[in-house]
Amino acid sequence: MGKDLEKIFDDCIGELRNGGSIELILQKYPEHKSELKPLLELVQAMEQLPKPEPTAGAVSAALIGLGEEIAHLRSAESPKIKKRRRSVFGRFFQQPRLAWTLSVAFALVLMFVGISTVSANSVPGDILYPLKLATEKVSFLLAFGSERKAELRLTFSEQRTKEIKRVLQKSGKLDEGLLNAMLKEAQLALEESPNDTSAFFLAKLNAVNTYQKDVLESFRPRVDSANEKIVNRAIGVCDMRGRWIKGMMREEWDEMPTHRPPATHQERRHSQKPQWGPGCDWMR
Amino acid sequence: MREKFLELAEEELQAVLEQARHFEPKAIAKLSEYCYPKVFGYIYYRVNDHSDAEDLTGEVCLRMVQSIRQQKGSFKGWIYRVASNVVTDFYRRRAVRQVVDPAADSVEDIVDDTDETGHLLNQAQLKEGLSHLTDEQREVIILKFIEGYETEEIARMLEKSNEAVRALQFRALTTLKKILQKEKR
């Protein structure tokens, strides 16, 4: 009997998960209604609870810790290399104290390199690059609100620009994947941005777009003809996007209370010209 | 509405695990992305403090990488066992500290979970209620209703029969209901 009830209860939970209502489900088991109803209500309340969420900082810290651990495990894993090294540096490693000091120093360097690489310098092909991308992904998932998400997209797009630059400096090659990712993240930033996008966000978007265009133009002469076409196309996208952003900024500005343009130099000096945003001097 | 965290189908999970056993950073990143939220949800209801839950989740990820080569059988079951051991160690360490340092005795207040959504139950109440259950009952309740697994999956993870899991679930919920009712009065 007890086992039957436990099975019935489990089936009821299954039906509840499939969208059934408690009343309807229990119509099938009127003899158990009084016993099962409060339990199913508790189940429903538990399943409606918001999922506990970790902070983005904690996730990043965990991933950085993992990066260090992988580097450590990988370095401990190559005995052949160790043996060869031991023969080269054999005399040093015959002294335990020196070996210990060097190992600690090596571990510290490894840790430092790990953290700094993850935080800023890793590019595709680096050991820690996937962790960097995972950190970005998780921080995006944890971000709340469309404006914050759009800002993060923008940051990722800027990151990809920096990575393109770094890859180009390192290998002299244009990474087409990164270029696409850069444009895609900027596009997603536009799509994620809320309908009532703030002037501040538009200004930021414009600044990143201009920066990306400048970067692309700066390395156009350094790429081969096939890649030049790709770069030109990307610059075209930036141009188009820039025009769109400026149009949005003008609209934003038009909605603000307007002032008659000051006629005289004296008036101009005393006019309340905005310090930033569309229409201010530095934006022209 | 927030996006869901990474989910992996069983085959995909096995492929990622295979690569992770060779310490492939990409695979380990993917595995961590997959495990972190699950483990965090599991640990969150077993410790009082949010930041303790975060630290312990980090520790689980680290232990996962360190012993990934020894992992056999169900990965999900294994990772929750690792998480359970990490929590046990945490309480053991704390018990030792409490003997040495009486100031460490103060269990932090349950985090502020004022229910703004009008739910019948909030996270703090559930946490409190769960603390009165046996380890096995608590494990089943968390896996079923917080992590969202089915009875059969939980049975596989905990290496128990479906009937045993159902019995634990029924007894745990009956006790939990009584505790929550008592608290409301």
For this entry, give a set of tags:
heterodimer, A: mainly alpha, 13 helices, disordered C terminus, B: 185 residues, Arc Repressor Mutant, subunit A, 2 domains, 8 helices, globular
Verbal overview:
The complex is a heterodimer of chains A (284) and B (185). By secondary structure, chain A is mainly alpha-helical. Chain A folds into 3 domains: 2-44; 59-78 and 91-142, no CATH class; 146-256, no CATH class. In chain A, 75% of the residues lie in helices and 0% in strands. Chain A contains 13 helices and no strands. Chain A starts with a helix and ends in a 14-residue tail after the last helix. Chain B has 2 domains: 1-109, Rna Polymerase Sigma Factor, Chain: A; 111-185, Arc Repressor Mutant, subunit A (Orthogonal Bundle), CATH 1.10.10.10. In chain B, 68% of the residues lie in helices and 0% in strands. At the A-B interface, helix 1, helix 3, helix 4 and helix 8 of A face helix 2, helix 3, helix 6 and helix 8 of B.
Q: Which secondary structure elements does this structure contain, and how are they paired or packed?
A:
The complex is a heterodimer of chains A (284) and B (185).
Chain A: H1 2-17, H2 22-26, H3 33-47, H4 56-77, H5 79-88, H6 90-93, H7 96-121, H8 129-142, H9 146-171, H10 176-192, H11 199-219, H12 225-254, H13 265-270
Chain B: H1 10-20, H2 25-44, H3 50-66, H4 75-100, H5 123-130, H6 135-146, H7 151-158, H8 162-184
Helix pairs in contact in B: 1-2, 2-3, 2-4, 3-4, 4-7, 5-8, 6-8, 7-8
